Amino acid sequence: MARSRLSVIVACHNMRRELPRTLYTLSPAYQRGIAPDEYDVVVVDNGSTPPVSSADVSAFGPNFHLTRSPLPTPSPASGINAAARAAAGDVIVVCIDGARMLTPGILRLTAAAFRAFDDPVVATLSWHLGPKLQNQSLLEGYDQRVEDALLDSVDWRRDGYELFRISTLAASSGDGWFLPAAESNCLALSRSAFAGLGGLDERFRSAGGGLVALDFYRRACESRGELVLLLGEGTFHQFHGGVATNAPPDRHPFSDFHREYVALRGKPFAAPRATAIYLGTVPPQAMPFLKASAEAALAIAPADGS
Fold first, then answer.
1. What is the DSSP string of the chain?
2. Which pTM does this prediction carry?
């Protein structure tokens, strides 16, 4: 079967510190088992001040390109959708948050999933860098300086799976690989599937898109035949003052985001119940998360196995 070219769309806004690390984790120097001509990376600058420069993006390889949202809005949805329409790839990989670093096997396994399955949804789980969810750790002094030292403590550039050693599962992935997740911050669909869903819903107007990523993941899972979850891979959120990820618990905007979701969908948000097919291997650094995932699933499994 012919290889599907991937177009990876990375949205960013004022991520001068974080974006270079994220782009490095998408570069041919870091990603394993996939050639530069099998994918391209499109950075969507959603009104950064100062703006992201083309030179800063193209420095990661000839397959890296920059585009700008013509009318930047608090939500990245319209910029991502425009980039997807213009993308060269047969497969659209949405990275809605440019502060999230990736593991080295994501692109190879995503391409493999599209060769093995008929028009799947390919998803990954999400982690936060640091010992706790960043909404909590910031109350204990976690900040960009602490995170820089944490990243320097492991050789993640040589082996990106070292990121598992210094991270904790995000709340949206908190039950691990074997129970439903609420979202995926690296989500791949065929170009036709992306278009069939209408892309990300641009009616979500909240800062950062509100629950637009959760909504898109749910709609994708409900509309496609196979959900392929990449085992042993993930994305890792850097601390950058994010609207939701780095808000203290008492000022978290979820209630406002959820009201917007209910107004648009007419019902409360719930994680999709799609049954996943697993693709990948588990590196030693991720074994503690594999164990915790299995224990979480076993804790709610019926005793008779039904």
1. -PPPPEEEEEEESS-TTTHHHHHHTTSTTTS-S--GGGEEEEEEE-S-SSPPPHHHHHTT-TTEEEEE-SS--SSSHHHHHHHHHH---SEEEEE--TTEEE-TTHHHHHHHHHHHSSS-EEEEEEEEESSS-HHHHGGGT--HHHHHHHHHTS-TTT-GGGGGGGEEE-GGGTT-TTS--S--SSEEEEHHHHHHTTSS-TT--SGGGTTHHHHHHHHHHHHSS-EEEEEEEEEEEPPS--TTTTS-GGG-THHHHHHHHHHHHSS------PPEEEEE---GGGHHHHHHHHHHHHHHS-TT--
2. 0.94
Domains and CATH numbers, the chain: 6-300 (3.90.550.10)
pLDDT digits (tens, 9 = 90+) for 121-171: 999 999 999 999 999 999 999 999 999 999 999 999 999 999 999 999 999
